[in-house]
Amino acid sequence: MTRADAPSAHEYRAELALGAPFLVVATAVALLLDSGRSFDLGPAIVLVLAYGALSHVRFYAGAGHTVPTQLVFVTMLYTLPTELVPLLVLLGMVVGNLPDYARGVLHPARMLMLPGDAWHAIGPALVLLAAGAVDPTGGDWVWLIPALLAQFAIEFVVSAVRAQLALDIPLRDQLRALEWVWLVDALLTPLGVLAAMASVDRPYAFLLVLPLALLLTVFARERNERLEQALELGGAYRGIAMLLGDLLEDADEYTGGDHTRGVVALSLEVADELGLDVRERHNVELAALLHDIGKIVIPTEIINRPGPLDEREWELMKSHTIEGQRMLDRVGGPLADIGRIVRASHERWDGGGYPDGLTERTIPREATVVAACDAFNAMTTDRSYRQARSTRAALEELREHAGRQFAPEVVDAIVRVVARELPEEERSAATSASLRSAQSPVELGGASAPSSSPLT
């Protein structure tokens, strides 16, 4: 769904739940409170127009974006009647979006979202009015600290409501985006105070900060262009990764087909459960897709051998992680970083893995996710040499090897993710089942190791 589309039913519900209370509260503040400051129409028009213009200067980060409107918002709090500022902020948003409505870039019904977006103005206005701190000179500026905290708190609540009622974006991802918003607002607030101080005796002195707004506009455009280029390049590398995955599927239907898709799906869920950032999650996705790519060079009869391999065959099998890294290094770019994770996807938490014997935190975090998800998928699917284990048995096996073969936090995350997919009567049994002693390491994807080998 794009901004040119009409809001969904969920979006309508969320925005009515946010917008209607804002209009009631903002109107009550305007009618019942009084800052004692007169309304000067000229500066008010300029500030509203400036707010609308800055609302289009977008710096994208994660699941959202931020705008440098704080530069004007703080000035409005101190140079206009403070009780009117929330409604004037809403007016600025409406004016700023008029060109998009006219061009069809923005659906007119999305104007319903603007009152919810204006909630951030309520908190600071109430704090300053309650404290009687409406003069930027002297010591009144100290009240900006609780005012800013009130603004951040309200933005958090609005994001939580939207996450609950309308958006598919997890609240955790929204919080990551809010951290960026809060940082920009906190850094621009002092400049807004300086502009307000200069405007006490000279009503239009705040115009001196607008060249900074133009500079931010240039920076935002440059940054967004670079982000678009990076996304295009990332899409190209993702396409290469998908092509390599298709080649692997052609070479071995099990390894490249259902197994790889299953590992990718589970790895992404576990990455979300662990709260990995956007880059780490992207790395997990590509590493899960390509973790077996080196098996292209391994003879099919070894990969599909219905029984343990001999020592020579096992050494050849273990080389697939090195071969996978070598292939991805030749592609270069972001896939070279993925190659490092692919190489480490068969390392063990206790140092007994291959090819480098890495231990604990020296193993790339993304590789620990892929390794455990690979093992779980291998245990719960039929192989050429054995039948699939039950989900409960596979979870028990992972938990028994947590801290030895697998990262404990990753195993815990897999248990939580998998348990959510089970029927209610099986869920508690899966998460609290008694552990049993294991005599051998958990098997990963691919043929089984020789019986004398401590590795799988």
Describe this structure in words.
With 456 residues, the protein is mostly helical. The chain has 2 domains: 9-227, Arp2/3 complex 21 kDa subunit ARPC3; 252-432, Orthogonal Bundle (Hypothetical protein af1432), CATH 1.10.3210. The protein is 64% helix and 1% strand. The protein has helices at residues 9-32, 41-54, 70-79, 85-103, 114-117, 122-131, 144-165, 171-198, 210-251, 253-274, 278-290, 300-303, 311-318, 320-331, 334-343, 365-379, 391-401, 408-420, 424-432; strands spanning 59-61, 64-66. It has a two-stranded antiparallel sheet. A hairpin with a 2-residue loop joins strand 1 and strand 2. Helix 3 crosses helix 8 (171-198). The longest helix is centred in the middle third of the chain and has 42 residues, at 210-251. The protein is elongated, with a radius of gyration of 29 Å. The two termini are 45 Å apart. Residues 253-257, 433-439 and 451-456 have low confidence and may be disordered. The chain crosses the membrane at residues 16-34, 41-61, 73-98, 118-135, 141-165, 177-198, 204-220. It comes from Conexibacter woesei (strain DSM 14684 / CCUG 47730 / CIP 108061 / JCM 11494 / NBRC 100937 / ID131577). Residues 429-440 have a biased composition (Low complexity). Residues 233-430 form the HD-GYP domain. This is Metal dependent phosphohydrolase.
Comma- or semicolon-separated keywords:
mainly alpha; Hypothetical protein af1432; Arp2/3 complex 21 kDa subunit ARPC3; elongated; two-stranded antiparallel ribbon; 2 domains; 19 helices; 456 residues
